[in-house]
# Entry
Amino acid sequence: MHIMELENVYKNYGKLQVLKNIDLQIEKGTSTALVGPTGSGKTVMLRLIDLLEKPSSGTLYFKGTDANESNNTRLEVRRQIGMVFQKPLAFKASVYDNIAYGLKVRGRKENMDGRIKELLELIGLSGYENRNALKLSGGETQRLALARAMITDPELLLLDEPTANLDPISKKKLEELILKINRESDTTIIMTTHDLLQGQRLADRMVILYNGEILQSGTPDEIFRKPKNKFVANFVGIENIMSGSIEESSDGLAKIKTDSINVFAVTEKEGKVHFSIRPDEITISLEKVQTSARNTIQGKVNDIIDTGSLIKLLVDAGELFTVFITRESLNELNISIGTDIWLYFKASAVHVF
# Structure
């Protein structure tokens, strides 16, 4: 079931177009990360979903109903949504009163003490009921804001860069809390972040935004393994991105010619293309050997970079390739800068876009 749908949504501020042609469906109970560089439109989209603003055109549906069809509908929908801003403000009151605020304004005071106690345990602030909320640390304030949003049992929880201003320890605690809320309470979560790895850790689906448009959406694995265009590939840190033209194609196997090399790929595309090969899909040897890999290319090691867990080789084979090997392999093969090696990778390992 789609808890939230955005259909052909545009948002303008005067002549400035901030969002364009946004189509997005959010499944109930899932966690979605809106990911993109600063200025890509992430926070504006979150504010539209929270009904703090209206789209310039297009429609937002909440559980199948046009969320903006009337003021009464907007109010009813907003009561089912919780929002935590990037820099949340605590009220000049106790931690208890801060969390209780949402229940009090809705007149829902039954079992309030028990509910607040449960939330304080959940966010790791048990015993803080009477603390002055203004004297909490940044991480504690962020968790307080999360509890304040959760107290009304929202079906949809919106988080705007929830860990942007936190130290590493507080960030880890909050990420664990977000995961727990999503998995244990079945609360649907939409969060914005510029941190790709955070999106990968916390989200079932990632939506890549750039210049107000959705460039790609899918599971983290789909985003990282099969980027739809060069911007997404560069943004998510894909290695070995190259460009060329498809010169021959037969039964789905194509030969792509770059300025320096030929690469065989499984694709139905034609003409000029970009393509990438994940470093972990490439194997190496010192001497040329027979393998099932369709691509066999010789190159020279330009650089050796110790990344800690793996060794990164930069290999000049006409195009510059990045290859990852273990430290054990580096020592066994006695590879150094200037060593000639052979690279092997399957046609199916070449992602064409």
Summary: The mean pLDDT is 92. DSSP finds ten helices and 20 strands in the chain. The longest helix spans residues 168-185. The radius of gyration is 25 Å.
